[in-house]
Design a protein that fits this description.
The complex is a heterodimer of chains A (390) and B (78).
Chain A (H helix, E strand, L loop, with lengths): L8 H28 L3 H7 L1 H17 L5 H9 L1 H7 L1 H25 L6 H19 L1 H26 L16 H15 L16 H30 L9 H6 L3 E2 L3 E2 L2 H30 L9 H14 L4 H34 L7 H10 L2 H4 L3 H4 L1
Antiparallel strand pairs in A: 1-2
Helix pairs in contact in A: 1-2, 1-8, 1-9, 1-10, 1-12, 2-9, 2-10, 3-9, 3-10, 3-14, 4-5, 4-14, 6-7, 6-12, 6-13, 6-14, 7-8, 7-12, 7-13, 8-12, 9-14, 12-13
Chain B lengths: L1 H13 L1 H7 L2 H22 L7 H17 L8
Helix pairs in contact in B: 1-3
Classes of the chains: A mainly alpha (390), B mainly alpha (78).
């Protein structure tokens, strides 16, 4: 595994935007409005703590055992056998999203722009071959692609939301909290399962080029930005379409067709399509990278690149074979993913952290704790270190 | 189906230089085992052999809990 990679905190943050954002901004408005009605945007914000949990656990584990992925942390905390068994969880998680995410995008492209093109051709040529190329080129290439594409995508999305806000009726958002707290908490749980995809960063953060604190702050800040964007998208599309939202497959896409600025910036659906090809391209590349790395470490291989092409072929077959139609994907994302995602993104890291805490794994490697201990025992003073003695 | 098999075999040939020189024995084995498994699975999917998919398994696993936790309540305002 090439350890010389150095991904900057800003690149980590932009990957954090693309990983949950690629699916969440498309799928969540419908799910949230179905569950929480006109308070869907509140639910989008209440799900944030679930996304912060994997990042906080990574931070705690990285203080104990720095520069390791989840697979390595699991083995160090639980031992080789139990750790290896637990490390299968992320592989299953990544495998499931390797089917659903490309399928969602294929359906969007096929349904709106290329209806006569077979899905397998869309999957292979528009998505997966570029993904294979970028993943084989390494994590730094992926991070630089994110640095280029994600800001463009966000700009396009904000343009669409601002343009369609002209058609918004605030009465569609009222009465706030009329449905009660339980539906909002249901929505927050669904939104949180998407934000908890921050767990994927556990396989990217070990290659950080900046300090731990700066990297963590960047990832957390960008997670908050994604949640704010999901809340804003949900509020705007709810205000524009009102009770029609629960029956719309991709309301942001419909909203892009209502945009009309100065009679010449109209029908921005092609812009939205471009945004999503870009964001999902980064997202799927990150998934393929994480999957290859997790499998490589699970079987003790040296280089993840040998698995890249088979993984891409697997993703194409999964995207085509696992879902009968686009409604199957939507149903899976709305009803199964919140539970499946939450169980695999939060429970294994919590288990690893809890066991590491109980068994004191890696505690001796904490530089701050060691410095404090040396200072308390007067080691620094004996060595003649003026700052330590003071 | 023939096209898919041909495409996958063709792409596999792209890796020949790596298989010969860059990768060690374990990586070469991993490549062929993984590639063979995916190829076999894709062919079985094309032949519509009823293999349970991950979505079916996860749906079945979480359906009872999903009904309790994620069933939307009727919205009287909409």
């Amino acid at each position: 595994m090439p350890q010389e990679w150095g991904v900057t905190p800003r690149q980590i943050g932009l990957l954090m935007v693309a990983i949950p954002g690629g699916t969440a901004i498309l799928a969540l408005p419908t799910i949230l409005d179905k569950l929480a009605g006109q308070a869907g945007w509140v639910a989008a914000l209440l799900g944030i703590p679930m996304g912060l949990i994997p990042l906080a656990l990574w931070n705690a584990m990285d203080r104990r055992l720095p520069g390791q992925t989840f697979t390595e942390h699991a083995r160090a905390a639980l031992g080789p056998v139990a750790g290896t068994i637990l490390a299968i969880c992320p592989v299953l998680l990544f495998a499931s999203t390797l089917g659903s995410t490309p399928r969602q995008l294929i359906d969007l492209i096929g349904g709106s722009a290329l209806p006569r093109t077979p899905p397998v051709v869309l999957a292979a040529f528009t998505l997966m071959l570029p993904v294979a190329y970028i993943v084989r080129s390494g994590l730094e290439t992926l991070a630089r692609a994110a640095e280029l594409l994600v800001p463009l995508g966000l700009f396009g999305l904000l343009l669409i939301l601002a343009g369609s806000a002209k058609e918004a009726l605030l009465v569609n958002l009222r009465p706030v909290l009329a449905v009660g707290w339980w539906p909002i908490l249901q929505g927050a749980f669904a939104a949180g399962s998407f934000y908890a995809e921050s767990f994927y960063l556990w396989y990217i953060l070990p290659f950080r080029g900046g300090a731990r604190g700066a990297t963590l702050r960047s990832a957390e800040g960008c997670l908050l930005a994604v949640a704010a964007l999901v809340a804003l998208s949900t509020a705007v599309v709810t205000a524009v379409f009102g009770p029609l939202i629960p029956d719309m497959p991709v309301p942001v896409f419909q909203a892009s067709r209502t945009v009309e600025i100065s009679d010449f910036i109209t029908h921005l659906d092609s812009v939205l399509l471009t945004i999503w090809v870009a964001l999902d391209f980064i997202k799927i590349s990150a998934f393929v990278f994480c999957f290859c790395l997790a499998v490589t470490q699970l079987f003790g291989l040296r280089d993840y690149r040998s698995l890249t092409l088979p993984t891409v072929a697997f993703a194409i077959a999964a995207a085509i074979g696992w879902f009968g139609s686009d409604s199957d994907v939507r149903l899976w994302l709305a009803r199964t993913w919140p539970l499946w995602g939450t169980v695999l993104e939060i429970v294994p890291p919590l288990l690893v952290w809890g066991v590491a805490l109980l068994r004191g794994k890696g505690a001796a490697h904490r530089p701050l704790a060691n410095a404090k201990r040396r200072w308390q025992h007067g080691t620094a003073a004996k060595a003649g270190d003026g700052e330590g003695a003071a | 189906m023939l096209g898919i098999v041909a495409a996958m075999v063709g792409i596999a040939l792209w890796e020949v230089p790596n298989l010969r020189s860059h990768w060690d024995r374990a990586e070469r084995w991993a490549f062929w085992v993984f590639w063979g498994a995916v190829l076999l699975w894709a062919v079985l999917l094309q032949m519509q052999v009823p293999i349970p998919t991950m979505t079916q398994l996860t749906n079945r696993l979480f359906q009872p809990l999903s009904k309790k936790l994620l069933t939307p309540k009727p919205n009287i305002y909409w």
